[in-house]
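User: Hi! I'm working on a homework problem where we have to compare a predicted structure to a textbook description. Could you give me the structure for the chain below?
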Amino acid sequence: MYRDPVESLEPLHSRPAAIRTLRVGMIGIGTVGSGTFRVLARNRADIAARAGRSIELVIVAARNLQRAAGIVGEGVPLTADAMHVATHPDVDVVVEVAGGTGPARDWVLAAIAHGKHVVTANKALLAVHGTEIFAAAREKGVVVAYEGAVAVSIPIIKALREGLAANRIEWVAGIINGTTNFILSKMRDEGLDFAAALAQAQALGYAEADPTFDIEGIDAAHKLTLLAANAFGMPLRFADAQVEGITALQGLDVACAEQLGYRIKLLGVARRQASGVELRVQPALVPVDHLMAHVKGSMNAVMVKSDAAGLTMYYGAGAGSEQTASAVIADLVDVARLDGVDAAQYVPHLGVHAHAMNALSVLPRAAVDTSHYLRVPVHAVGQIQAVTACLAAQKVPVRQVALAAECSGTGPQVLVLTGPVVQGTLDLAVHALQARNEVAGPVVTLRVEALEG
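Assistant: Happy to help. Predicted structure tokens:
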């Protein structure tokens, strides 16, 4: 049953500051919003003890008011007007969990303009409009918190901002999309091709009916943009990220990687170099004995290399209603504790060193220097030497050469692992290989990531 929103709530100044309840307005009551409501209600006492005061949901905006009423019951007023929640005079913090980048931008900016803190799990919104949003938040002295936007249950933003605050971050790399990791796990464990693994992911609810953002790497790139901003203090440069998904990945390459002692994972990598920052998402080979190679199903994992702490790794669920709610509520607890704290610390690229960090550029694809995997189809087994000779002539270092063990119906396949080489040089070498008579089809290339200290 629809109920009119509260017309007036007790003024904030009428309560003792030490015990004043943090009053929350939420926009969206779908998967994440409903999880947030349930966890807040179930763990109310524990959350209040950790926050130092109660956190109360006082109004919710929803598209479907009847459905929303079935979730929140009689205790929380509902409205169909999200802007009413964003501008309500008695709401302290707005939780935006509706998604999208259009209306959500307007709601968030309106909330900030009215002096409200914002908590969001909307990575697309921040990746695309974050620079504008964070600048507005700094101007108004409010927080925009977004732990749930990056790696769901993994508190990686807090780790970068607080746990590793003493460190100079060298690189961040991770499996930050649960859908693609589930698909890749099925391709390896059950020998499925990409289409069959995707269909299974959709049937089980791990992939959307339109999975484009996930399988094309866009979702991971949104998250990586936020990780890089926190790790390096740089602006949000989603438009400059190099993004490659898994739609073209073949089961044959999954099997060949295993033969060579590697597993293929969709990785987001942000690495600081002297000349700029690598900002890239791509399927890559990871050594089979590396911890990252054993992250299966829809789980996520993030590794950070920093100068003092060294290598650290963070692991947890990459999707889920209450898993995301855990991160959203952790942000609310932070907001509840922030009295007297400079809100600018939550604005990753506008801090003390903003001027220097803004000068960091994103390296172009051709300048990225990594090892590579090549699968070269040839007409005859004896043509391995022609492949290696061509690579040598193109100044590509070769570490390992083998024939694919499983190439039924495809003809002989030469597998090559290179040493470190810049992408531009490798591209020229692949072009030269394709022109040779010995090569029987398209050359497949994937990056190899050691993820070492």
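For your comparison, note the following. The longest strand covers residues 262-273. The two ends are 57 Å apart (CA to CA). Good luck with the assignment!
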